[in-house]
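pinging the channel bc i need a second pair of eyes. not urgent but kinda urgent?? the chain im working w is below, pasted from the shared doc
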Amino acid sequence: MYGSGAVAERPETGVLDTCAYIDLGLLDPSALPRLPEITAITMAELHQGVAMAKDPAVRAARTEKLGAAIVDFAPLPFDGDAAARYGTLVALVLAANRDPRPRRMDLMIAAIASSRELPLYTRNEDDFKGLDSMVEVVAI
């Protein structure tokens, strides 16, 4: 029964990064975990997006997306375990000859997923290059 036509089992839980959450309505649900999670970092980025929107229509759309996140998710916090893992992830990025500074938010999201041993779903796999030994990154 496990031949080449076998379908991979969807993980029960996984973390969506901010771009995956924003594009959630465009994604194939079968490519996502059964119970998607978002982080407090994603929530902060959604608030930032509303604050930075100059166009009223863009602000309204972003406010709606933020409101849905507030209603639909209890964000995973950036706690002490995630903070410790963050330092490890920064070291991995440096070892890969990449600059961690423009990736701080992504690395914080990855640290939350990694410290909880959850896969991380993203539309921007390149943002997480060099981290595969510490976090399972799922490109969607």
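so The first strand starts at residue 13 and ends at 16. and The radius of gyration is 16 Å. — does that match what u expected or am i reading it wrong
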